[in-house]
Amino acid sequence: xxxxxxxxxxxxxxxxxxxxxxxxxxxxxxxxxxxxxxxxxxxxxxxxxxxxxxxxxxxxxxxxxxxxxxxxxxxxxxxxxxxxxxxxxxxxxxxxxxxxxxxxxxxxxxxxxxxxxxxxxxxxxxxxxxxxxxxxxxxxxxxxxxxxxxxxxxxxxxxxxxxxxxxxxxxxxxxxxxxxxxxxxxxxxxxxxxxxxxxxxxxxxxxxxxxxxxxxxxxxxxxxxxxxxxxxxxxxxxxxxxxxxxxxxxxxxxxxxxxxxxxxxxxxxxxxxxxxxxxxxxxxxxxxxxxxxxxxxxxxxxxxxxxxxxxxxxxxxxxxxxxxxxxxxxxxxxxxxxxxxxxxxxxxxxxxxxxxxxxxxxxxxxxxxxxxxxxxxxxxxxxxxxxxxxxxxxxxxxxxxxxxxxxxxxxxxxxxxxxxxxxxxxxxxxxxxxxxxxxxxxxxxxxxxxxxxxxxxxxxxxxxxxxxxxxxxxxxxxxxxxxxxxxxxxxxxxxxxxxxxxxxxxxxxxxxxxxxxxxxxxxxxxxxxxxxxxxxxxxxxxxxx
Amino acid sequence: xxxxxxxxxxxxxxxxxxxxxxxxxxxxxxxxxxxxxxxxxxxxxxxxxxxxxxxxxxxxxxxxxxxxxxxxxxxxxxxxxxxxxxxxxxxxxxxxxxxxxxxxxxxxxxxxxxxxxxxxxxxxxxxxxxxxxxxxxxxxxxxxxxxxxxxxxxxxxxxxxxxxxxxxxxxxxxxxxxxxxxxxxxxxxxxxxxxxxxxxxxxxxxxxxxxxxxxxxxxxxxxxxxxxxxxxxxxxxxxxxxxxxxxxxxxxxxxxxxxxxxxxxxxxxxxxxxxxxxxxxxxxxxxxxxxxxxxxxxxxxxxxxxxxxxxxxxxxxxxxxxxxxxxxxxxxxxxxxxxxxxxxxxxxxxxxxxxxxxxxxxxxxxxxxxxxxxxxxxxxxxxxxxxxxxxxxxxxxxxxxxxxxxxxxxxxxxxxxxxxxxxxxxxxxxxxxxxxxxxxxxxxxxxxxxxxxxxxxxxxxxxxxxxxxxxxxxxx
Lengths: 545, 476
Known about the structure:
Chain A is α+β, with helices and mostly antiparallel strands. In chain A, about 30% of the residues lie in helices and about 25% in strands.
């Protein structure tokens, strides 16, 4: 989850009232913010990506004001009429069709404000923007731009000076030679042309969703900003810009509209939404008996507008609150405003008795019987490495079932047998006294359409006098004492076991497992110096259906 | 008296008090104890640090059957040379020599050639060079010189010759025996001097009941399995019935049915394990697919793809099992739970595993509320022995309202995040035909196990170190 750094002195100014550190630290969690780290002059909090407005201290201050009762109700986004125009050319329709923008004028940018804005931009790219696939943002120094602008597609030979580069580069060079080009270039795959925003002098100001131009770089000297959002979805573009605009307004900028023309595009209006809320729904969800007035008050504490209208409550939701879908979301807002600590837990009576699944009951019996036979239970992962599962055990890997792009080599194949893991467990305990007797029960995976899962039991015994007969005794006893099942053993061959000391386990005429002495070669692969005997049996279909 | 000595110990100590160091056999002779009694006594005394035992291994070499024959008649190659010498021309046909040496002809000719004693031309063997005693012959002589007493390996100088002689079948018999010598320690000597004369008759039958006994271990279930069982018992006692489901699930049930949009970061390979080349043919019914896709289009404004919903994943939570049961079981009122492995494509560290256990319970009912959910959570914690818990708001994509619970851990002296909870969103329940509100709560089991066992590294739970597994008490 994304993290925001809040400096107490900045936050104090934004809140407009002196609030103690302790009060701030104890209130933040009730906004859904997790405290990551408390510093001397700052605090790091984690926020959920469904609240992009929390990506700056401005948004967090706004919400805190509400909960602390400093200011409640909507803080309106005031948009003045601007004169700037962006024409969206048809050529971007199949690449990245939508653009919205605003001007932000007359603000002052110090280093911390720029840092907050850039952090917000990154968080929005990753969250609402789906790693820039859906939405990307460009923030520019407006005074470096000659209006009006055009958003259009150009070919990959097009050249300009990108941010962070000392010289002109072609689009292709940017995609192949810069960090962001390589990271996000795949979003433009399949298009010969790429989208750019150009000013009236024909200068490129942005190459979305990759990089801005150096020309319009925002610095502490910038007074007027131009913020554009390009997107594959119009709604998402406007959501994102609303969050940006609200933060910029709180940072002291005056927001002016930018007229957007062109195919399927229009000027964003940032309209707040109206929603009718049924108080009985809220009380039903929360298990409370709040009056309409209490609900209105609670909603306003979350910086929404609300008023009673007949039996209902009329809510107004600012555009930047993209997380509110419907009435249950407003019920949560009421709960937050009312105060989670004020909700007293209640325990509803249980209607019927609970019960374990029959599979669990059978497995408990199996595990208990193995413990009774003197075997220690171990637990291994289902997602394992190739070396243990196939190479060391000399097993055929043609039906290998693997996952894509695992971050670790030891976890990339789904096990189809438990025994390799048990032998590996033995090999990690060679310094412990023998005899060693261990077992495991767990799910194994087989290729089917698409995958079949079975529960197996495997057990191994390792000591100098171990042999086939000992293992067969354990197997027989497990089946007989545990489940009154009788099995026979039929000589067979298996690469993991010694020839002549290996048998299939047969129950009701069907092979359900294997028992034998582990081959010295396999043992040696695991650096084992003590002989091992083992069995593995499929329990699915045997002790439960 | 701090230390009681068994009569056997007393006898051994006395004998050692006189002789300082003896072998077990010598001890048996001196004390008139059986060799087994002596061995047992030595073990006890060793433990009390009254004696110490030095072990050494000795290897003895004797002549075996053919070795002794060779000591009388000479090695096969020597016999060949002698035979050739006995013939006037010092050479003979191969056949002649074969008749003379019979089955030893082969080694004889090979070794004689190797020694440079003979040459073979046109099927004739001709004597050549000098025929001094070979190193192998010297070893046989050495053993012979010892008579009945065996030769120890240390006495053999030429190890190469020894090894090559050893390779010849049935020439040498090599045996090794372990020798232990028992020495009395300073503490032992002191004990002897305090023992006085004669046996301590009053204590003849006493043993040292205060001495530690050998350590043995009970076979047990895995501590983490015990925690899983405990959690399961609590859910059952709260009236919940258990669901069991597969680990491999279609994206449809793991994500789409829970209103997690297809572009959501959680659905990327960086976070979720996708099975290679594995797709569900029909992840859900036509109706379920249609309704769920509509909810996504209306709620998230994007082009929902069936292909993405068909991709098989290793479940990232057990909620996929629960939601499917709710969608297909037609429950009006129910308490259900599922517990099992879930998977995340994480870098393994002291706090993250790629595979861990999760429990999740749901309550379906006409008039269940958020406060009920908090109450059930508190009941669960109370049964786990957790007294202090508090709630904070949080976010999960498929519940609203959503809460996070924190519990106070005495050992760590701080609040720790544990289970999450919430009420399923209407965007989840409505498309699947679930009529009543669904309360859901759950979390990771390993977290609880770590707190319970005082672990700081979650990997310990899966290291299967016998040492650790045995050290955790069954009841804690």
